[in-house]
Amino acid sequence: MTYHDTQGRYGVISRLFHWIMALFIIIQFMALGSYINDGEHWVGNTIVPWHVDVGLLLLVLVPLRIIWMLSQQQQRAKPQGQGVMALLAKGGHLLLYLCMVLIPVTGVLLMVGGGHGLGLFGIELVAESEKSISWAVALGEWHAQISWLFVALVLGHLGAALYHHFVKHDDTLVRMTIKRLGNS
To answer: What pLDDT shows up at residue 100?
Structure first.
Protein backbone atom coordinates (compact mmCIF):
# COMPACT_ATOMS: atom_id res chain seq x y z
CA MET A 1 0.00 0.00 0.00
CA THR A 2 1.44 3.34 -1.00
CA TYR A 3 0.29 6.66 0.36
CA HIS A 4 1.78 8.70 -2.49
CA ASP A 5 0.67 8.75 -6.10
CA THR A 6 2.72 6.87 -8.67
CA GLN A 7 2.83 6.68 -12.46
CA GLY A 8 0.49 3.67 -12.35
CA ARG A 9 -2.10 4.66 -9.76
CA TYR A 10 -3.28 7.15 -7.21
CA GLY A 11 -2.07 6.62 -3.66
CA VAL A 12 -4.26 5.98 -0.63
CA ILE A 13 -4.45 9.64 0.39
CA SER A 14 -5.55 10.84 -3.06
CA ARG A 15 -8.17 8.10 -3.24
CA LEU A 16 -9.47 8.83 0.24
CA PHE A 17 -9.77 12.54 -0.59
CA HIS A 18 -11.55 11.67 -3.85
CA TRP A 19 -14.07 9.20 -2.44
CA ILE A 20 -14.80 10.90 0.89
CA MET A 21 -15.39 14.16 -0.91
CA ALA A 22 -17.47 12.33 -3.54
CA LEU A 23 -19.68 10.99 -0.73
CA PHE A 24 -20.05 14.46 0.80
CA ILE A 25 -20.82 15.95 -2.61
CA ILE A 26 -23.49 13.31 -3.26
CA ILE A 27 -25.05 14.27 0.08
CA GLN A 28 -24.94 17.91 -1.05
CA PHE A 29 -26.59 16.99 -4.37
CA MET A 30 -29.33 15.24 -2.43
CA ALA A 31 -29.88 18.46 -0.51
CA LEU A 32 -30.55 20.21 -3.84
CA GLY A 33 -33.84 18.37 -3.62
CA SER A 34 -34.79 20.84 -0.90
CA TYR A 35 -35.93 23.15 -3.70
CA ILE A 36 -38.69 20.68 -4.49
CA ASN A 37 -38.87 18.78 -1.20
CA ASP A 38 -41.58 19.87 1.21
CA GLY A 39 -39.82 18.41 4.27
CA GLU A 40 -42.22 15.49 4.42
CA HIS A 41 -39.72 13.00 3.05
CA TRP A 42 -36.52 11.35 4.30
CA VAL A 43 -34.26 13.65 2.25
CA GLY A 44 -35.91 16.79 3.55
CA ASN A 45 -35.79 15.62 7.14
CA THR A 46 -32.36 13.94 7.13
CA ILE A 47 -30.03 15.38 4.50
CA VAL A 48 -31.10 19.01 4.09
CA PRO A 49 -30.44 20.03 7.72
CA TRP A 50 -26.80 18.88 7.31
CA HIS A 51 -26.22 20.91 4.12
CA VAL A 52 -24.32 23.75 5.80
CA ASP A 53 -22.28 21.41 8.02
CA VAL A 54 -21.22 19.21 5.10
CA GLY A 55 -20.49 22.31 3.02
CA LEU A 56 -18.19 23.64 5.73
CA LEU A 57 -16.42 20.27 5.93
CA LEU A 58 -15.87 20.48 2.18
CA LEU A 59 -14.54 24.02 2.59
CA VAL A 60 -11.83 22.56 4.83
CA LEU A 61 -11.19 19.45 2.69
CA VAL A 62 -10.90 21.25 -0.66
CA PRO A 63 -7.74 23.26 0.13
CA LEU A 64 -6.18 20.19 1.77
CA ARG A 65 -6.97 18.17 -1.34
CA ILE A 66 -5.54 20.85 -3.62
CA ILE A 67 -2.34 21.05 -1.57
CA TRP A 68 -2.03 17.26 -1.66
CA MET A 69 -2.70 17.15 -5.41
CA LEU A 70 -0.04 19.78 -6.10
CA SER A 71 2.46 17.89 -3.96
CA GLN A 72 1.85 14.73 -6.03
CA GLN A 73 2.05 16.24 -9.53
CA GLN A 74 5.58 15.00 -10.24
CA GLN A 75 4.78 11.38 -9.34
CA ARG A 76 1.52 11.12 -11.28
CA ALA A 77 1.22 9.70 -14.77
CA LYS A 78 1.05 12.34 -17.45
CA PRO A 79 -2.16 12.46 -19.52
CA GLN A 80 -1.94 10.01 -22.42
CA GLY A 81 -4.04 11.90 -24.92
CA GLN A 82 -3.17 15.00 -26.84
CA GLY A 83 -5.08 17.72 -28.59
CA VAL A 84 -8.69 18.56 -27.86
CA MET A 85 -9.44 15.59 -25.58
CA ALA A 86 -6.45 16.28 -23.32
CA LEU A 87 -7.40 19.96 -23.22
CA LEU A 88 -10.99 19.07 -22.31
CA ALA A 89 -9.81 16.72 -19.55
CA LYS A 90 -7.46 19.31 -18.09
CA GLY A 91 -10.06 22.08 -18.38
CA GLY A 92 -12.75 19.86 -16.87
CA HIS A 93 -10.59 19.05 -13.85
CA LEU A 94 -9.71 22.72 -13.41
CA LEU A 95 -13.41 23.66 -13.49
CA LEU A 96 -14.26 20.86 -11.02
CA TYR A 97 -11.68 22.20 -8.55
CA LEU A 98 -12.80 25.79 -9.12
CA CYS A 99 -16.39 24.80 -8.37
CA MET A 100 -15.28 22.86 -5.27
CA VAL A 101 -13.75 26.10 -3.99
CA LEU A 102 -16.47 28.52 -5.10
CA ILE A 103 -19.53 26.58 -3.96
CA PRO A 104 -18.74 26.54 -0.22
CA VAL A 105 -17.31 30.07 -0.35
CA THR A 106 -20.47 31.45 -1.97
CA GLY A 107 -22.56 29.45 0.49
CA VAL A 108 -20.77 31.08 3.42
CA LEU A 109 -21.14 34.51 1.80
CA LEU A 110 -24.86 33.92 1.30
CA MET A 111 -25.40 32.81 4.90
CA VAL A 112 -23.27 35.42 6.64
CA GLY A 113 -24.15 38.19 4.20
CA GLY A 114 -27.84 37.54 4.79
CA GLY A 115 -27.35 37.79 8.55
CA HIS A 116 -28.13 34.12 9.14
CA GLY A 117 -25.00 33.31 11.06
CA LEU A 118 -23.00 30.17 10.59
CA GLY A 119 -22.53 27.04 12.65
CA LEU A 120 -20.79 23.71 12.35
CA PHE A 121 -22.48 20.74 14.05
CA GLY A 122 -24.09 23.02 16.61
CA ILE A 123 -21.00 25.15 17.27
CA GLU A 124 -21.65 28.78 16.42
CA LEU A 125 -18.89 30.15 14.18
CA VAL A 126 -20.55 33.42 13.18
CA ALA A 127 -23.44 34.90 15.13
CA GLU A 128 -26.69 35.90 13.48
CA SER A 129 -26.95 39.56 12.65
CA GLU A 130 -29.78 41.92 11.86
CA LYS A 131 -27.58 43.64 9.32
CA SER A 132 -27.05 42.17 5.90
CA ILE A 133 -23.93 42.66 3.84
CA SER A 134 -25.13 43.42 0.32
CA TRP A 135 -21.89 42.59 -1.52
CA ALA A 136 -21.67 39.22 0.27
CA VAL A 137 -25.27 38.41 -0.60
CA ALA A 138 -24.70 39.45 -4.23
CA LEU A 139 -21.70 37.13 -4.55
CA GLY A 140 -23.43 34.42 -2.52
CA GLU A 141 -26.36 34.39 -4.93
CA TRP A 142 -24.06 32.62 -7.40
CA HIS A 143 -24.11 29.57 -5.09
CA ALA A 144 -26.99 27.78 -6.84
CA GLN A 145 -25.80 28.51 -10.38
CA ILE A 146 -22.28 27.28 -9.64
CA SER A 147 -23.77 24.20 -7.96
CA TRP A 148 -25.75 23.30 -11.09
CA LEU A 149 -22.64 23.84 -13.23
CA PHE A 150 -20.84 21.49 -10.85
CA VAL A 151 -23.56 18.86 -11.27
CA ALA A 152 -23.03 19.01 -15.05
CA LEU A 153 -19.24 18.79 -14.63
CA VAL A 154 -19.50 15.82 -12.26
CA LEU A 155 -21.78 14.02 -14.71
CA GLY A 156 -19.23 14.73 -17.46
CA HIS A 157 -16.44 13.48 -15.18
CA LEU A 158 -18.36 10.29 -14.47
CA GLY A 159 -19.16 9.85 -18.16
CA ALA A 160 -15.49 10.30 -19.10
CA ALA A 161 -14.39 7.75 -16.49
CA LEU A 162 -16.92 5.22 -17.80
CA TYR A 163 -15.88 5.97 -21.40
CA HIS A 164 -12.26 5.25 -20.52
CA HIS A 165 -13.21 2.02 -18.78
CA PHE A 166 -15.78 0.55 -21.18
CA VAL A 167 -14.82 2.05 -24.56
CA LYS A 168 -11.10 2.74 -24.42
CA HIS A 169 -10.43 -0.17 -22.03
CA ASP A 170 -7.62 1.71 -20.27
CA ASP A 171 -6.82 1.91 -16.55
CA THR A 172 -8.03 5.48 -15.96
CA LEU A 173 -11.00 4.45 -13.80
CA VAL A 174 -9.15 1.62 -12.05
CA ARG A 175 -6.37 4.01 -10.93
CA MET A 176 -8.85 5.78 -8.60
CA THR A 177 -10.86 2.83 -7.29
CA ILE A 178 -10.83 1.87 -3.64
CA LYS A 179 -10.66 -1.81 -4.60
CA ARG A 180 -6.96 -1.44 -5.37
CA LEU A 181 -6.05 0.14 -2.03
CA GLY A 182 -4.39 -3.04 -0.78
CA ASN A 183 -2.61 -3.88 -4.04
CA SER A 184 0.95 -2.77 -4.67
So the answer is: 97
Alpha-carbon distance of 162 to 160, in angstroms, equals: 5
Determine, yes or no, domain membership for 1. Answer: no
What CA–CA distance (Å, rounded) separates 162 from 168?
9
* pLDDT score at 146: 96
CA 57, 63, 24, 43 dihedral sign is positive
For 132-171, how does the pLDDT look when each residue is reduced to its tens digit (9 = 90+)?
999 999 999 999 999 999 999 999 999 999 998 999 888 8
Average pLDDT of the chain, as a whole number: 87
User: Does 37 have pLDDT greater than 60?
Assistant: no
CB of 57 closer than 8 Å to CB of 118: no
Number of domains the chain contains: 1
Residues of the domain holding 124: 12-180
| CA neighbor of 16 nearest in space, from 80, 82, 91, 72 | 72
> Any long-range contacts for 147-152 (C-beta under 8 Å, 24+ apart)?
147/28, 147/32, 147/99, 147/103, 149/95, 149/99, 150/25, 150/96, 150/99, 150/100, 150/103, 151/29, 151/32
Q: What is the mean pLDDT of residues 49-55?
A: 89
